[in-house]
Design brief:
heterodimer, A: alpha/beta, Rossmann fold, FAD/NAD(P)-binding domain, elongated, B: alpha/beta, seven-stranded mixed β-sheet, 9 helices
Chain lengths: ~700, ~425
């Protein structure tokens, strides 16, 4: 097959022309790759952009290489319809960070051009993704978050099914007469905005409500979820394109709080129990009399390593509200709020101040040690943690502000090879662990909202639900176009598996961070393309090298590695850097933008994720005589920053295989190293690269050099 | 006349989120930012809590999405002069101040820097340090193009940059542009500004005592590309700090200043405590809280930082900061709410955890009768077709601003589809 025709534009602006011999680069491109070459002094300027477009129109060449600045800048200038564009970084990572007009810098630029052209020739246009059938958004959970999500999505023009396991809508909020205030003047408890939401949902022409329904199985993928649910004893099926998980919370099991008197005395109750009493006519009398002393015990089971280590976020506000309501019901009562910190963020501070104005509500800071019967009353003993001083308060009624526990498990019953639940990073919450994209669960097309995602107030749930609803509606749109969701949003490429060679080793199905792959009876992977986030972890995992994207494959990357010219002179080093495109590669660009100098032996290939590193990349590099390979990926561990959750961690685990391969090749293991970097590391990277080069120099040349 | 389905006012985290999420749903968006770069306040932060990851990591992805999405048109140095109409049919008059550097020609090569003789205070670094009158706001600036500060530039009489620019990108005669934008919906994400520390000069020494800085400035001191290269040096005498006190609720939860809680400062100071412990491993850190407000899983972060033996947490409101003229040492005095006694800590630097002030919202949409609460936060359901998002609405952290911006996008889409 004749190589695909390519056209190379070399920009000589920004010092590239002074640092490099552009004509020599062009000559090699023409000679080795048959490229038509155009050199221009200001390619990103209006004239350059026009020139490229006019020539694209006239010549019809669909493969353009732009050897200029980093692909991270000027994307708008160099993006053309129906055209494959490969950006070759001669500015930030060549001209700006290496000695100008030297042999080594020129050699680096030449290799960069070769790698870019090889990639371009071997890349192809995406094939349309398999068509999907569904456009409906399924909202699971009919509490305030689910109701809001359903309503907001329906109002934006999408069809919605709201599925609730109880026979009525409303969730926990239906038990609440009042909530803490979220509108000015933020001083008095408010009636929750529930009834009008329920009415609006029930009346909405685009919302189908399923009550008393539980999901038996959710199979398929975004755009084509097939959800089996049970309602009134019958199983039925519905189709959905995206899912909002709003299954809410349940109170922490107070029977585990015996030391706080729960179950010991009937007058020790939970905040949720008090809430129901307040809603249904008022709080209980104690021994037939109005209580004279009520103690609220905050963080009952929350902020406690033995129970819930996290803060449940809403209990302070809830107790403040309940204290006020109790004082209205029992004007003689004294109310004590025992707390570690009062957490009333934002304008809720006004409500806290309002409650403090009540002369019979007292705030005591301390850690409650025990609640025990004392005569006919209760004695609440607390320790001031800082002073070691004990305090004791007599109470008729004790209210335990028990925390909230997410209800994420066993709700969707996903028919996924990796299991039925949305994986949780922390304490069973279905959160994303990302600050910048909070709604992505580890299951594509499923977005969590409300207390199942994190503990939050009613107002917080309402805000949260709109956001998760947006992401679900957006998923419907993108999937229909065959495009990837976050973080490679809009990417039209997806992986294909050449299954004839598959050995059913299951590495891909086990390692996919998003559970995109199922297995048939024999264990052969079955891709659900719309569950895929296009990270290429499967491509890195596969020992048979049978996973590829049309523009990103084992063949493309190994061909790029093979395009690196390894000099026979043993004193001239070559180092391959495999850099994650999300943090490591941009950090290298930033180092270049500051004109930080580092070894010109470095040849960088940008990867979608370090998790897509296949051991063959390293084996090929080393067996070609490249002196060392440095893998630069995102941080892993508890506070991982990998955009694909565990890509960089998987890459680090594969280093064992790498060492084995190196041993087989009789090459020192020190020649391959993995480093975790962040965007902040632009100042550390040049030194890191130079140090690696120095260590490789100490090891001496790669024994395969010259073979 | 330009038009878009949705106009987003403010290019910080909430505004960027709203703009990109709406565009990725298929709607056209015009994003207006008053500064010469996008990213807002987060762009100036060193790290985020609780993961201690750099904001540039997230912004890199945000900017990539922006650059590759033709549905978002963004305008920097752009402010709204007037808005007419209502939901489904707004007309937004925009004033775009001159950058004096053509963004389609500038390559950020930096040739101009070497010849520019004029200087200006570096507002990106909150006035710590100076830049040339022609400057790249930040190494990650979006757009990655230079700008000229007309207040500092010597103008046509100098014009050295014009002569040296290889790409003819500089036009010192550029005039302000006005244009009208038709839109069906508006997202107001005007963000916040740090509470004015001058109001804390008397009590807490801000602006009066060298070594007393606010929390946003401390982010720049810790940043590798900041004015000190990430060294924690005391402004004034440049001493590398060995001890530090964080004063929480500096102007927040205070009837004389901001009555509300700014919701992010506790975690912000705990995060900054980690900068100190990382940079100066022997340094002693004091944090003076009224209450430590670290909701949800942030409690893990609080527990981790507070467990550090060199991080001492106190409960009590700081009443006074004084300075020893001889040594420059600062003494923080608080009423300990646990003991009722006065506590004191003498340190090299004091960071005031000043709160978030939504003041930019007041001028953000002239012509519209927006409804505000007593503190200046925009009421969410005050005006059909206008959706406040982020700190314009109430104090919130970055993650919540992302979520709120995302939710605002959905509400804006409802205006577009008429739902």
């Amino acid at each position: 097959m004749a190589a695909n025709k390519v056209r190379l534009y070399i920009c000589t602006g920004c010092g590239i022309g002074e640092a490099l011999d552009a004509a020599a680069l062009g000559a090699i491109a023409a000679q080795e790759y048959g490229a038509q070459v155009v050199t221009h002094p200001h390619l990103c300027g209006p004239e350059g952009g026009t020139l490229i477009r006019e020539e694209r129109e006239r010549e019809g060449c669909q493969r353009l290489a732009i050897a200029a600045c980093s692909g991270r800048v000027n994307a708008e200038v160099f993006t053309l319809d129906q055209t494959l564009v490969e950006r070759i970084n001669l500015r930030e990572q060549v001209a700006w960070c290496h000695e100008p007009a030297t042999e080594e810098t020129q050699a680096l630029a030449t290799d960069q051009v070769r790698m870019g052209l090889v990639k371009l020739q071997k890349s192809d246009f995406p094939e349309p993704a398999p068509a999907v059938s569904q456009e409906r958004v399924l909202v699971v959970g009919g509490g305030i978050a689910g109701l809001t999500a359903a309503l907001e999505v329906a109002n934006a023009g999408r069809e919605v099914t709201l599925l609730e396991r109880e026979p009525v809508l409303g969730g926990w909020l239906a038990n609440f007469a009042y909530i803490s205030p979220s509108t000015p003047p933020y001083r008095e408890p408010q009636v929750p905005p529930l009834a009008e939401k329920v009415r609006a949902v029930q009346a909405h022409p685009r919302v189908q409500v399923l009550l008393g329904a539980e999901i038996e199985k959710a199979a398929g993928e975004p755009g084509a979820f097939a959800v089996t649910y049970k309602q009134n004893g019958n199983s039925a099926e519905l189709g959905a394109a995206a899912i909002v998980l709003a299954t809410g919370w349940e109170p922490y099991d107070a029977t585990k709080l015996g030391h706080l008197g729960y179950g010991v005395s009937p007058n020790v109750i939970t905040g949720v129990e008090l809430e129901a009493e307040l809603k249904n006519g008022g709080a209980r009398l104690v021994n037939g009399r109005a209580p004279e002393s009520v103690v609220f015990v905050q963080c009952a089971g929350s902020r406690d390593e033995n129970h819930l280590p996290y803060c449940s976020s809403v209990c302070c506000q809830a107790s403040l509200k309940q204290a006020l309501l109790l004082r209205q019901q029992f004007p003689q009562a004294n109310v004590f709020i025992l707390h570690k910190d009062i957490r009333t963020p934002g304008q809720y501070e006004e409500f806290y101040k309002r409650v403090q104005e009540d002369p019979q509500i007292f705030f005591l800071r301390g850690e409650v040690a025990s609640v025990a019967p004392d005569g006919g009353n209760l004695l609440v003993s607390a320790t001031d943690t800082q002073l070691g001083r004990s305090v004791a308060v007599q109470a008729d009624l004790v209210v335990l502000a028990t925390g909230i526990v997410p209800r994420a498990a066993a709700t969707l019953n996903l028919d996924y090879r990796q299991g039925p639940d949305v994986p949780s990073q922390h304490y069973c919450f279905a959160d994303s662990n990302f600050i910048c994209w909070p709604y992505e669960t580890q299951r594509t097309g499923i977005f969590a909202a409300g207390c199942v995602r994190e503990p939050q107030s009613v107002a917080g749930c309402i805000e949260d639900a709109a956001g998760a609803g947006l992401r679900a509606a957006q998923a419907v749109t993108l999937i229909k176009e065959g495009a990837a969701l976050h973080p490679r949003v809009g990417d039209l490429y997806y992986p294909t598996f050449f299954l004839q060679r598959c050995t059913q080793c299951k590495r891909c199905t086990e390692e996919c961070p998003f559970g995109a792959l199922d297995e048939d009876a024999k264990g052969t992977p079955q891709l659900n393309a719309n569950r895929c986030r296009r990270c290429g972890v499967c491509m890195g995992a596969c020992p048979e090298r049978l996973v590829s994207f049309k523009n990103y494959s084992i063949d493309i990357i190994t061909s790029m590695i093979k395009a690196i010219e390894v000099p026979e002179d043993e004193d001239i080093q070559r180092i391959l850097v495999l850099a994650c495109e999300n943090d490591a590669y941009p950090a290298l660009d930033l180092a270049g933008a500051r004109h930080s100098k580092y070894s010109a032996a470095v040849r960088t290939i940008s990867l979608r994720c370090l998790g897509s590193t296949n051991v063959v990349f390293i084996a090929d590099a080393v067996s070609r005589g490249i002196d060392g390979v440095l893998l630069l990926g995102c941080k892993y561990g508890d506070d991982y920053q990998c955009h694909f959750i565990k890509g960089s961690e998987l890459a680090s685990k594969r280093m064992d295989n790498v060492r084995e391969t190196l041993g087989r090749l009789r090459v020192e293991p020190e020649r391959v190293r993995l480093e975790q970097v962040t965007m902040d590391d632009w100042d550390r990277l040049p030194r890191l690269l130079d140090d690696f080069a120095a260590e490789l120099a100490d090891l001496g040349p790669n024994p395969y050099k010259g073979f | 006349m330009a038009s878009a389905d949705i106009v987003v006012v403010g290019g910080g985290m909430a505004g960027l989120s709203a703009a990109l999420e709406a565009a990725e749903c298929g709607y056209s968006v015009a994003l207006l930012e008053k500064e010469p770069f996008l990213g807002g306040r987060v762009m100036r932060m060193h790290r985020f809590f609780p993961k201690l990851c750099p904001p540039t990591c997230g912004l890199e992805l945000y900017f990539r999405r922006l650059k590759t999405n033709p549905r978002v048109q963004y305008y920097t140095q752009a402010t709204v002069q007037n808005v007419r109409g209502g939901r489904g049919a707004f007309m937004v008059d925009v004033l775009q101040s001159p950058r004096f550097v053509a963004t389609d020609k500038c390559t950020a090569c930096g040739e101009c820097l070497a010849v520019c003789p004029a200087e200006r205070s570096d507002d990106f670094n909150y006035g710590l340090g100076r830049t040339n009158a022609i400057y790249l706001p930040h190494q990650m600036a979006m757009p990655n193009k230079y700008a000229i500060d007309s207040a500092a530039c010597l103008g046509q009489s100098c014009a050295k940059c014009v002569a040296v620019c290889p790409y003819g990108a500089i036009d010192l005669a550029e005039k302000p542009q006005t244009f009208a934008l038709a839109a069906k919906s508006i997202v107001l994400a005007s963000g916040w500004q740090p509470y004015d520390g001058d109001n804390l000069a008397e009590s807490l020494g801000y602006g009066r005592l060298p070594g007393v800085v606010n929390n946003v400035t401390f982010e720049r001191l810790a940043a590798g590309e900041g004015p000190t290269g990430g060294k924690l040096l005391r402004p004034g005498d440049g001493k590398e700090i060995q001890s530090i006190a964080f004063v929480q609720c500096a102007g927040s939860r205070d009837e004389n200043h901001l009555p509300y809680c700014s919701a992010v400062c506790c975690l912000g100071s705990l995060k900054q405590a980690t900068y100190v412990r990382e940079r100066v491993p022997s340094a002693q850190v004091h944090v003076f809280f009224i209450d430590a407000r670290c909701p949800g899983r942030y409690e893990d972060f609080y527990r981790k930082v507070a467990a550090d033996p060199l991080v001492k947490t106190w409960r009590g409101k700081v009443a006074k900061v004084t300075r020893d003229e001889g040594t420059g040492a600062l003494t923080v005095e608080a009423d300990d709410s646990l003991t009722g006694h006065k506590t004191r800590a003498t340190v090299d630097m004091v960071v005031l955890a000043t709160g978030t002030d939504p003041a930019p919202a007041r001028q953000a949409l002239p012509g519209l009768g927006l409804a505000f609460d007593a503190f200046g936060f925009v009421l969410p359901d005050g005006l059909p077709g206008v959706h406040p998002a982020g700190v314009a609405k109430h104090p919130m952290d970055v993650a919540q601003s992302v979520r709120d911006g995302t939710g605002a996008a959905l509400r804006a889409i409802q205006d577009v589809v008429g739902g």
